[in-house]
């Protein structure tokens, strides 16, 4: 039973990866907007810029791990 539930949280395809990255991106932009409201000026802009950069790095890692998993699993 736990194994079946755990399989729901495994990213298996690129489409699923892009959906996860999209969700991370929308959340990062929302957080960046809050940073701009809390910290007006250069500090807010720097924090806003850091949010999407983190999503870019995480997205690259997610896509790379899916490609690596496919490459290692050759039937």
Write a short abstract of this structure.
The protein is 83% helix and 0% strand.
Description:
The protein is elongated, with a radius of gyration of 17 Å. The longest helix is centred in the C-terminal third of the chain and has 31 residues, at 42-72. The protein is built from three helices and no strands. The chain is mainly alpha-helical and 75 residues long. The model has no long low-confidence stretch (mean pLDDT 88). Helix 2 runs antiparallel to helix 3.
Question: What is the secondary structure topology, with strand pairs?
Answer:
Layout: H1 2-7, H2 14-38, H3 42-72
Which terms would index this structure?
single chain, mainly alpha, 3 helices
How much of the sequence lies in strands comes to under 5%
Query: What integer is the average pLDDT?
Result: 88
| Spans of at least 5 consecutive residues with low confidence | none
Major β-sheet profile: none
Distance between the termini: 27 Å
Shape: elongated
Q: Helical element count?
A: 3
What is the alpha-carbon Rg in Å?
Answer: 17 Å
Quantity of strands, as a count = 0
Order of helices and strands: HHH
Summing up helix and strand content along with how strands pair, one would put the structural category as: mainly alpha
Helical content class:
over 70%
């Amino acid at each position: 039973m736990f194994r079946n539930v755990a399989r729901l949280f495994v990213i298996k395809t690129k489409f699923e990866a892009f959906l996860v990255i999209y969700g991370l991106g929308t959340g990062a932009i929302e957080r960046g907007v809050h940073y701009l409201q809390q910290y007006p000026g250069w500090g807010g802009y720097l924090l806003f810029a850091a949010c999407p950069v983190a999503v870019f790095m995480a997205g690259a890692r997610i896509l790379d791990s899916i490609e690596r998993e496919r490459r290692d699993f050759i039937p």
